[in-house]
């Protein structure tokens, strides 16, 4: 087991190393839609790339999620075949949100540096596809709200 401090140091090193290995400006929170953001996630056992719906107005989350659902077949067939839609995803904080994500299928732990490279490559490939999809359908998605 790792101490809290060692775990925090490894997490920081993981993200710093990713940024240095793949220096690029990602879309992430810059979608220009409130509460609609792309994220990289990693913990002791899993890694994934996600699109979170956390608008303060629940109706906006519902409308945006429904708009993405209408594009699901395109997202799956042309960009990310392994994408998962979850309209009731529970965050570590206990809060429930809508989330669309792709899980890194290979063995991974943020505490195991030997697994980092595969994860970084997964992040780059998956987020690139998510961004291409978003840019292609941005106007249509924004029509929801």
Automatic annotation (TrEMBL):
Q: What is this protein called?
A: Uncharacterized protein DUF4268
Q: Which InterPro entries match?
A: DUF4268 (IPR025364)
Q: Which Pfam families match?
A: DUF4268
Protein's organism: Tenacibaculum skagerrakense
Please state every residue range assigned to the domain named DUF4268.
Answer: 10-137
């Amino acid at each position: 087991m790792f101490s809290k401090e060692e775990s925090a140091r490894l997490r920081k090193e993981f993200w710093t190393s990713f940024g240095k290995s793949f220096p690029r400006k990602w879309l992430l929170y810059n979608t220009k839609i409130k509460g609609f953001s792309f994220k990289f996630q990693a913990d002791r056992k899993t890694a994934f790339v996600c699109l979170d719906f956390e608008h303060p107005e629940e109706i906006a989350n519902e409308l945006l999620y429904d708009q993405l659902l209408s594009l699901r077949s395109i997202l799956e067939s042309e960009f990310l075949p392994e994408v998962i839609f979850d309209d009731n995803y529970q965050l570590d904080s206990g809060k429930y949100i809508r989330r669309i994500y792709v899980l890194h299928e290979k063995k991974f732990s943020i505490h195991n540096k030997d697994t980092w490279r595969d994860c970084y490559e997964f992040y780059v490939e998956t987020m690139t596809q998510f961004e291409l999809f978003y840019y292609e359908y941005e106007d249509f998605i924004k029509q929801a709200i």
